[in-house]
Amino acid sequence: MIRFDDVTKTYMRGQHPAVENLDIEFTRGEFVFLVGASGSGKSTLMRMVLKEVAPTRGTVYVAGKDLSRIPSWKVPALRRDIGMVFQDFRLLPSKTAYQNIEFALAVIGTPRKVVRRLVPEMLEMVGLEDKGKRLPHELSGGEQQRVAIARAYVNRPSILLADEPTGNLDPATAGGILDLLAEINERGTTVVMATHDRTAVDRMHRRVVEMVGGLVVRDEERGTYATPAPVSVISGNLPDDSGHREDHPLEDAQDGTDTEDASAESSAAADDSRGDLSVADGTGSASSPDDVLEEDLIDEREALQVRDEDLLLEDAFAEEPVVSGPSLDETEEERR
């Protein structure tokens, strides 16, 4: 399903590689946790799967296809078979839960009859069948993440990438999100989840791949977050030598998530494999090269139109009345 053959990625000459000599395979139907300190290469690995950045050396295969041989105009089609879930949800704030999911179908020309069937199915699957008319700010964090997962899965992708999907959630809510991802995995979708969530990894007992300084140092079936393996940094068995991160720091000071530095972004933006897909991220500000929300959903003929979200959706959606919802601070019992 996903294979890396001797893959190295260096963003700038003279820097420590973000990923080095990577030889690993994720088979169809697997659930894999990627763990490691910030700057270990997890996000770069995911970006190469999305063909958002290209390896400096080596070959990446997705669904049997050599990504280096896929032209830029075919990248949107590739990404439609890869769902992506983020820590910060990245929902369109002016659209209801129903419309956020509908958007993923409308922009690829799905017939309205099919949309009307699939969206309610997705809302029911994620346990939000009665909240389709609520805006994101009217939903709790866990509910927003469920909408984001439904949007990522509505096209039934063969691969689902999740970058810290439980990072902003309390333990109980995070458990529900893990159960949802496990259900999607049981339906045949390969799930690769990058996380620092010790509880999540220990609870699931799935395959665990640990990265340190761009290298895979541990690959365990039914693993746990900590390990006695001497090569593990997150277990405290090996010093966290993060000096090379000055070359490409991945720690975001705002939220602690993995992001590439400015030099990596500029280098990636110049890569032909990205194509001309820079679009608005749905928050009213221009998206950075790291943002792939719209890139996952929009084919090339619509990439420019989506800069004006309201114009794109004017014909695609029939506006529905918004149901006033509770504040985020209310408990479920108070809402009832």
Helices and strands, with pairings:
Elements (H helix, E strand, L loop, with lengths): L1 E8 L9 E8 L4 E5 L6 H8 L7 E6 L2 E2 L8 H5 L2 E5 L10 H10 L5 H14 L15 H13 L5 E5 L7 H16 L3 E5 L3 H7 L2 E6 L2 E6 L41 H8 L39 H8 L15 H4 L1
Parallel strand pairs: 3-8, 3-9, 6-7, 7-8
Antiparallel strand pairs: 1-2, 1-4, 4-5, 9-10
What is the 3D form? globular
| CATH fold-level assignment | Rossmann fold
Number of helices: 10
Q: Tell me the fraction of residues in β-strands, as a range.
A: 15-25%
Based on CA atoms alone, the radius of gyration comes out at: 20 Å
What's the CATH C level? Alpha Beta
**Helical percentage:** 25-40%
Biggest sheet architecture = 6 strands, mixed
What is the succession of H and E elements? EEEHEEHEHHHEHEHEEHHH
Number of beta strands: 10
- Major sheet: arrangement of strands: 6-7-8-3-9-10
Give the rounded overall mean pLDDT.
Answer: 79
Q: Given the helix and strand composition, which structural class is it?
A: alpha/beta
> What's the quaternary structure here?
single chain
Overall CATH architecture:
3-Layer(aba) Sandwich
